[in-house]
């Protein structure tokens, strides 16, 4: 699945066009045998009303529509008795973004055929991304009701049914309505787009407001963290014609708000007296509440504090509750002057410090690597690589997440080579069911999953069998009980091993690992490590090596000192690199540029069939035009020592035995060397 090309899959092998054609020819409305209108598809452990009646939209109202106005959806929704809070918020987001909505609900104009003779067939189809592919899900239009009231998500228009039908398709994809309760809004954003969801814990150290020092200024660490958060929001904030961030903010438990704009403005007095006092701009975030229904609640200052229960937040309320005294004083006329405007009456502005103080999570869905009309040119510059894998106790590939345990290295491993420092995203997603099916009776709770990215030897080609001190984790994505976890950041040039895991060993699950990197001429390479380290073996028992492997040696090239320039070199500083040769295999470090004490800290592993032959270490001066010049070299016997051992070797103009005193010294190299005769552990 490397270089994954997402394709459209017919869920349950149901073809919408064939179903529609057959229903119209037979003059009957579609009844879905794969997801029948029975109480059993709701679930087994939730409270189900005893008087549920499954009705088609035409039996609920006189003039049903898929969309009342497809070109302008009303994002204000309300939940039904069976609705999940996150589903309501996800549908509200979808209603705001026509490009995504039109992909999830294809051919919406043609599908909206209620009451049209010769076109209405009682079937609808939706497209949802699921573990690497777009699934085309067909449903009939039977919906659960009690006393003619829908029990699922609905819009304010009683004759509009796209949300209820989409929720039914989502429930079918996951096995039941009950199964949706294990998911979150971050999962829905991924399923609507195929992107990567990132969850920021706003209660983590550094984001939340802290006690200020005596001078009244925020603590530096907290301020720096909020500045980083602001930069992230500004980077991801939506433009009028673009797609932006999505948030799940905990004003009400399980209630998500949408970030619709981010600005930095000057608040407070703007007279000449204060103009040059070094005032800083205040970060402001515009939020939208997707659940506003009914009449508008008065938001005048007189009504605040009167005991009235407000149906939603407004800028007036946010100002009066704000931690920012300047924002408390801003009037509506001043707000307009500052450009803090609204697109509808469901929005309100808040300073960033209030956002991180009042809310719990920020969810962003990045559309990197997505294929579709809603992906802009910047997002298409990402390259996607993907692998599916298993944690399976019976095959010994479920080692758990404790990196200190010997079983950790039993997990699946993926080799990642980076030729130059790069920004990347890593996404780990677990499949819903162990066997990949969607049976309502086989649904299980998400496992706690995470992954580590470990820096390894530059020339490693085989699986890790032990985590030696020179193999250090550079990223540890914490284990979480979520369907998906991700990391975004920068990694330097080098070779790494990505190890996805469950927190507990011996847990079975299937997963999808996706890597996103900015497209370049030489992209990052990712492949699964399936070849085991060679035991002391012969050709007949080890197809990867000819002859018999006796020793395995790791050489960590740390630094060099007191290097003497070759006679032909100018007096300026040297750019140098090391080259190691062992039984026909040659590797070289990066070039240490213009340093008196060049430092590399790069490691290499060699599997040796002839341990009596030493490893040749050479240091070269890098030249831009002329051939590179040899500074000095030495031979390493690298005998068995079973542990990483520091070693300082002297360089000579040509190779000499370690105990030779005849040749002059032209510098030294600081190494760490490990040699094992039990090669299976390297």
Automatic annotation (TrEMBL):
Residues 533-653 form the C2 domain. The lineage of its organism: Eukaryota, Metazoa, Ecdysozoa, Arthropoda, Hexapoda. This is Calpain-5. Belongs to the peptidase C2 family. Residues 29-368 form the Calpain catalytic domain. GO terms for biological process: proteolysis. One of its GO terms (molecular function) is cysteine-type peptidase activity. InterPro entries: C2_dom, C2_domain_sf, Calpain_cysteine_protease, Calpain_domain_III, Calpain_III, Calpain_III_sf, Papain-like_cys_pep_sf, Peptidase_C2_calpain_cat. Gene3D superfamilies: 2.60.120.380, C2 domain, Cysteine proteinases. The active site is at 255. SUPFAM superfamilies: C2 domain (Calcium/lipid-binding domain, CaLB), Calpain large subunit, middle domain (domain III), Cysteine proteinases. SMART domains: C2, calpain_III, CysPc. It holds the Pfam family C2. Keywords: Hydrolase, Protease, Thiol protease. Transmembrane segments: none annotated.
């Amino acid at each position: 699945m490397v270089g994954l090309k997402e394709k459209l899959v017919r869920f349950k092998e149901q073809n919408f066009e064939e179903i529609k054609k057959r229903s119209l020819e037979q003059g009957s409305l579609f009844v879905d045998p794969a997801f029948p209108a029975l109480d059993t598809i709701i679930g087994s452990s939730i409270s189900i009303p005893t008087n549920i009646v499954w009705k088609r939209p035409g039996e609920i109202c006189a003039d049903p529509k898929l969309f009342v106005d497809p070109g302008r959806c009303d994002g204000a929704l309300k939940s039904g008795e069976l609705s999940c809070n996150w589903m309501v918020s996800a549908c509200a987001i979808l209603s705001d973004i026509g490009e995504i909505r039109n992909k999830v609900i294809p051919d919406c104009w043609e599908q909206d055929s209620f009451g049209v003779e010769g076109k209405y067939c009682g079937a609808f189809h939706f497209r949802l991304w699921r573990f690497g592919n777009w699934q085309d899900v067909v449903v009939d239009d039977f919906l659960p009701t009690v006393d003619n009231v829908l029990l699922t998500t609905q819009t304010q228009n009683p004759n509009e049914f796209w949300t209820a039908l989409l929720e039914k398709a989502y429930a079918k994809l996951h096995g039941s309505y009950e199964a949706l309760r294990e998911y979150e809004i971050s999962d829905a954003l991924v399923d609507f787009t195929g992107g990567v969801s990132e969850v920021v814990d706003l209660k983590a150290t550094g984001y939340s407001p802290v006690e200020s020092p005596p001078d009244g200024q925020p603590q530096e660490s907290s301020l720096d963290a909020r500045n980083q958060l602001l930069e992230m929001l500004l980077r991801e904030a939506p433009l009028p014609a673009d797609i932006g961030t999505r948030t799940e903010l905990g004003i009400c438990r399980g209630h998500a708000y949408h970030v619709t704009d981010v600005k930095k403005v000057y608040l407070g007095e703007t007279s000449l007296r204060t103009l040059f006092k070094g005032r800083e701009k205040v970060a402001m975030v515009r939020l939208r509440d997707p659940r506003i229904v009914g009449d508008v609640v008065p938001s005048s200052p007189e009504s605040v504090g009167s005991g009235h229960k407000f149906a939603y937040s407004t800028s007036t309320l946010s100002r009066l509750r704000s931690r920012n005294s300047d924002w408390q004083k801003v009037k509506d006329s001043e707000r307009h002057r500052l450009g803090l405007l609204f697109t509808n009456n469901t929005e309100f502005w808040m300073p960033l410090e209030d956002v991180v103080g009042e809310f719990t999570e920020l969810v962003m869905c990045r559309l990197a690597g997505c294929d579709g009309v809603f992906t802009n040119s910047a997002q298409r510059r990402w390259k996607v690589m993907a692998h599916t894998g298993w944690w399976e106790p019976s095959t010994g590939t479920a080692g758990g997440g404790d990196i200190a345990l010997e079983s950790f290295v039993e997990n699946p491993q993926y080799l990642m080579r980076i030729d130059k420092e790069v920004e990347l995203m890593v996404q780990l997603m677990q499949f819903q069911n162990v066997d990949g099916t969607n049976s309502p009776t086989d649904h299980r709770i998400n496992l706690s999953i995470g992954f580590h990215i470990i820096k390894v030897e530059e020339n490693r080609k085989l699986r890790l069998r032990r985590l030696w001190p020179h193999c250090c984790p550079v990223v540890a994505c914490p284990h979480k009980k979520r369907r998906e976890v991700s990391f975004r950041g920068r990694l330097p040039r080098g070779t790494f091993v990505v190890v996805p895991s469950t927190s507990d060993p011996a847990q079975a699950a299937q997963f999808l690992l996706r890597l996103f990197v900015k497209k370049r001429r030489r992209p990052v390479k990712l492949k699964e490590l399936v070849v085991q380290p060679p035991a002391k073996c012969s050709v007949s028992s080890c197809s990867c090596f000819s002859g018999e492997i006796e020793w395995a040696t790791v050489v960590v090239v740390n630094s060099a000192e007191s290097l003497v320039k070759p006679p032909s070199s100018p007096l300026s500083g040297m750019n140098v690199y090391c080259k190691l040769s062992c039984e026909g295999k040659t590797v070289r470090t990066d070039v240490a540029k213009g340093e008196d004490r060049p430092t590399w800290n790069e490691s290499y592993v060699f599997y040796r069939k002839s341990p009596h032959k030493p490893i040749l270490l050479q240091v070269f001066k890098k030249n831009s035009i002329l051939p590179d010049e040899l500074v000095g070299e030495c031979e390493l016997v690298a005998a068995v020592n079973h542990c990483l051992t520091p070693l300082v070797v002297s360089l000579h103009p040509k190779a000499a035995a370690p105990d030779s005193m005849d040749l002059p010294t032209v510098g030294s190299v600081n190494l760490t060397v490990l040699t094992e005769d039990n090669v299976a552990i390297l």
